[in-house]
Structures are given as C-alpha cells and as structure tokens.
C-alpha cells in the first residue's frame, strides 16, 4: 500500500514537470548514479567523509554549530510553508501530508527543548503557526484513537503537544511579573497537561517499572520519552512558581525526584532499550541533570522535612550515586564524546555534594553511638566485647553470617 502511494506521488511529479523535461529513464539514471557514489571513493576521500560525518554527529549540543543548524531548519520550515494549515494545502497524498506534519512537529519540539536547555529564546513561535486541535483527526488534538499505534509518529505528535505547553510556560509564566497572574496561568497549564496525559492511550503510558513491562525495546524507549516529556512540563510549570530557585518547594522536589528516578532506571536498563526517539544521553542531560540540580539545591538548603527525609532521602542519594558512577566510569558516555565534558562537570559537583553529605552523616552517627561515660562502654551493643568476633581468626568468609553480623552494627541502623 505504501509503495503504491509513493508511486502515485512520483507520478504527480512527472505530470507536473511536463513532457520532454524529465522522464523515467532520467530518474533511474540519477538514482543509479547516486546509489554508486559510496563506491567512487579513494583512501583520502574515505578519511575526509568519515571526519565530516564524525564532526557532524559528534557536535556538542551547546555549540554554535548545533544552534546554527537548528536556526537553518526553522527558516526552512517557514520558507516551505510547513507552519501553515497543511490539511488544505492542495491535493497531496495523505502519507506526504502526515510526513510534513511530523517534520514540523519534530522541529517545533526540538526548538523548544534546545532553547530551554541552552537558556535561549525559541525561534519558532506558536502565534505564527497553525495548530488545529478541534477534531479527532487533527494532528494536534488531545484525543487519541484507542487503537493508535505507538511509533515515531505518535511520539513526535506527543512531543509537539508538550512543546506547545512549554512555550506557554516560557512566554506566559516566566514572562509574567505579577505572581497572582502567574499562579492562575500555571493552574490552567497544569490542568491541560494532566488532561493530555489522561487522554493518551493506556499502552502509551509508562505506569510501572520498565522491567515489568512486556513491551519491545523500541516501544519501551518511546514510552520512557513520553513520560519524561510529560513530567518535564510539570517540572517547568512548578519551577516558574518558585520565588527563589535556590529554595524549591515540595511539589517541585517531588517531580524532580520522580524524573531522576526514571532517568536512573533507564540508565540501569539501557541494555534493554533501543534509542528509537531521542538518545539516552540526551535524556540524562536534559531531564536528569535538571532534576538533579533541584534535588542538590534542596539537599544543600536542608529543606527536606524529617518525615520526607526518612522516606525519600536514602533513595535520592542512591539515585544520585548511580548517576555519578555511570558517567564517571564511562558506561554511559566515553571521554572522547563531545558531550562528556558537560556531563562530567555536573557529576563532579554532584559527587562532591554526596561526599560531604555522607561524611557529615557518618560523623553524626558516630557521635550518637559514642558512649558518653565509662558505664556505657559495657553496653552489649556498643562495647568492644561484642565485636571480638571480627578478629582475623574468626573471619573465614563473607558469607550470609557475615552480613547478618554486620547488620547489627549501630552505624548500619537506618535511623
């Protein structure tokens, strides 16, 4: 079916070109010539092409070259008219119209995400674009058919829906000076985000641990991106309501904790994921580091209440530690990767915070269990007599009994 549609499109092109201008033989000749281009190389051209491709694929996300290419893409979209109403753009095949819609949606969402990542203004404004959202068949509608297929087109459409809300947050929330107006607009955006999430087909939503999902690696990666995009909208919405970034509120911390937990789970589960959408490294940098930044600010400000710290802080520290270890030991990115420096700098800061927190907590535990007077030295739990079993003569192996004995040490109590 798809082949017939493509042939129909080629036929339309040939008819519009007129007789004697281009024919099937010329098309075939061009296709054959282009297909054998990789064979027409020498040892010098191979190295040059490899270097060019490596520089293109390995460009840093924060580099000027990447930012310039995204600007060229934005200009091309407006020049081609992809920002206009494509539903009534002439008698074009449905697959070509869908492809154009997806191309614009992907570019629109990339513009918002990269702008947020770099802290620069977006270049594709919604007020100059057409987003039809009034019917089920509309590309930017909140409603989805129950039997919608989870693929790259669905992921692109969802990313565009989230990007629309992100643009509203950037323009209407961060640009609003009156806090009361900002709260009202933020409430509306949050309701829209939650409505969009609840309207998604159930098989699109990641509502359980990834290891429990009976889905293919490609589908699991798409579900991960869909969930992170939704949480990122809520993250930005609550971030806009914080009076001081150095003092995040409870809701923002909870969302950041959920994002970080999901990113760390993806990092640990990376061998079972296929990067069908954005890469895992981008997810870690864009979503994970933003969430880790809010959490680190909370830890430095010591804003976790006692109840919340007992329940959440250990897991937060574990997630941060896993993220640091994966990047530090090169299992996620290599040192020669262009974006390694960006990750390494952030993880070094996180590592220093974790080291200071662990050191201070361990010192506090030692002070708490230290005997205040001589009578406490005879305490069966804290005295040296109960730990005579740890001599080298009795330590045979690190078996089950070893860990049971170690669990009785006062410094291992989860208090």
Automatic annotation (TrEMBL):
This is Transcription factor domain-containing protein. GO terms for molecular function: DNA binding; DNA-binding transcription factor activity; metal ion binding. The keyword Metal-binding applies. Its main location: nucleus. It is found in: Nucleus. The keyword RNA-binding does not apply. InterPro entries: AtrR-like. Keywords: DNA-binding, Metal-binding, Nucleus. GO terms for cellular component: nucleus.
């Amino acid at each position: 079916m798809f082949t017939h549609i493509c042939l129909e499109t080629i036929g339309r092109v040939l008819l519009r070109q007129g007789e004697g201008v281009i024919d099937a033989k010329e098309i075939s000749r061009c296709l054959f010539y282009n297909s054998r281009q990789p064979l027409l190389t020498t040892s010098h051209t191979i190295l040059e092409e490899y270097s060019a491709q490596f520089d293109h694929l390995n460009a840093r996300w924060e580099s000027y070259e990447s930012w310039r290419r995204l600007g060229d893409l934005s200009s091309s979209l407006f020049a081609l008219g992809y920002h206009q109403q494509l539903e009534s753009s002439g008698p074009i095949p449905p697959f070509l119209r869908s492809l154009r819609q997806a191309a614009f949606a992907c570019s629109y969402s990339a513009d918002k995400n990269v702008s947020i990542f770099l802290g620069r203004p977006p270049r594709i404004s919604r007020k100059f674009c057409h987003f039809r959202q009034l019917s089920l068949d509309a590309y930017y509608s909140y409603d989805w058919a129950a039997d919608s297929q989870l693929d790259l087109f669905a992921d692109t459409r969802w990313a565009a829906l989230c990007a629309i809300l992100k643009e509203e947050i950037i323009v209407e929330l961060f640009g609003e000076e009156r806090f009361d107006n900002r709260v009202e607009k933020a409430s509306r955006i949050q309701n829209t985000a939650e409505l969009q999430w609840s309207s998604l087909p159930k098989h699109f939503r990641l509502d359980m641990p990834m290891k429990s999902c009976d889905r293919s690696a490609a589908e699991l990666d798409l579900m991960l991106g869909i969930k992170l995009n939704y949480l990122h909208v809520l993250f930005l919405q609550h971030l806009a309501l914080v009076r001081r970034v150095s003092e995040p509120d409870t809701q923002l911390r909870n969302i950041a904790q959920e994002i970080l937990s999901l990113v760390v789970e993806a990092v640990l589960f990376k061998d079972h994921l296929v990067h069908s959408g954005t890469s895992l490294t981008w997810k870690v940098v864009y979503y994970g580091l933003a969430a880790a930044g809010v959490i680190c600010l909370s830890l430095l400000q010591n804003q976790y209440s006692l109840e919340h710290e007992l329940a959440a802080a250990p897991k937060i520290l574990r997630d941060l530690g896993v993220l640091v270890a994966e990047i530090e030991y090169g299992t996620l990115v290599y040192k020669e990767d262009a974006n390694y420096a960006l990750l390494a700098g952030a993880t070094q800061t996180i590592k220093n915070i974790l080291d200071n927190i662990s050191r201070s907590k361990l010192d506090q535990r030692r002070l708490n269990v230290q005997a205040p007077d001589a009578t406490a030295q005879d305490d069966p739990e804290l005295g040296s007599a109960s730990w005579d079993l740890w001599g080298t003569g009795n330590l045979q192996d690190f078996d089950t009994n070893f860990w049971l004995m170690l669990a009785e040490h006062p410094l291992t109590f989860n208090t």
